[in-house]
TrEMBL record:
This is Peptidase C39-like domain-containing protein. It holds the Pfam family Sel1. InterPro entries: Sel1-like, Sel1_AlgK, TPR-like_helical_dom_sf. It comes from the Bacteria. PANTHER family: ERAD-ASSOCIATED E3 UBIQUITIN-PROTEIN LIGASE COMPONENT HRD3 (PTHR11102:SF160), SEL-1-LIKE PROTEIN (PTHR11102). SMART domains: SEL1 (SM00671).
Amino acid sequence: MLMHSSASLAAAAELNAPSSLRAKAASGDAAAQLSLAMALRDGKGAEKNDAEAMQWAHKAADQGHAGAMDFIGFAYLRGAVVKRNPEVAFGYFKAAADESSQAAFNLGQCYFGAQGTAQDCTRALEWWVKAADQGHGRAAATAAMAYHAGEGIPRDAVKARRLAERAAELNNPAGLVFLGELQFQAGEFEAAKASWIRASKLLPTQATGHPSQPSDNASAQQAADLLRIMNYRQRKGEPGKFAHVPMPHILQGYNNCGSTACATFARFQGSEICGWDFKKLCPSPLGTGTDWGHLLDASAKIGQKWKLTTFTPDEEGFEKATAMLRSELDDGRPVVVDFKYIGPQYPNGSAGHTLSVCGYIAEEDLYILCNPAVATPGLQLITAADLKDFWRSDHYGALSKGVLSRPAFVIDRS
């Protein structure tokens, strides 16, 4: 689950006149200082300069500007502009949360994901609800999905629906996706369709999305995908043609994709475990990546039998891997896989992500993902070409031995 710093759309016009913006910032205008910091961080309207961006953000924060405090907190949380320090990030978010809905959202994320503080899911929900009351759509959507899944807190369908409706009021694409899913599950198909159409029009979409899209773009794309597979979800699968295996979905906490994906896999098999409880069965701290060997051990601790299977990362390996996928899906069983993203936007140049494959459409050479990083129901379409590119990993744990392969957890039927 990624967090977003409090970028201001109102600053966009200023960025067309960087000299004027610099002059205002130099005169002590805190809002201009933050706008200049954003321009320098993002390289939009000014040459990218992380160090100078932080200098201007600190000047604004020193004047008590809540948005600047959130900017600094986010930088320390992500570790992309300065050295990562969740404790410092938490302090800045806490200082700004009463005045900034974005800081309140990020503070909730820290409590939820044990970033810079002990985990406290109840307090996380309190801050998300406060942010939602202040007009933060993503906070409303995130709180709604937590109540729906019972992730870290007791399930509450009434609060989930009310917060989803609040997120929709605020035109949040993730909230509209989730509200549409609640409507779909209630048999309100036309209402669901309307929610997903609305979400899909908020941002540009394509025939299928890309696994590394930013959150809001991914939600708009997800809505388009849900419209496209709406009919398939209401039909019985046809082996060799298409399959969709319904899975429960949990929206992951900070850096908890492995345990959350495995919790949904476990829930599919009858467990009631949540992502955080699955994580606590593993030795690594909350808010850190999880070794797949530990995830496999955790499955045994809850009485489930899984096995790790791997395929070579070449063309032949992909053909064998997808044949396995379709066989499992035709038999009504999803499969957990690990993706590797490569690019300068990721700390250290790459990132891993665990999710499930829960369907395919053979005629269009598409696969259906159940992704813990996106809005409930987590469903996304991916082309076979993108699946081949992303389904690979050499750091899913000690079991990988540093060798690139296509890893998967499947239900052990032996």
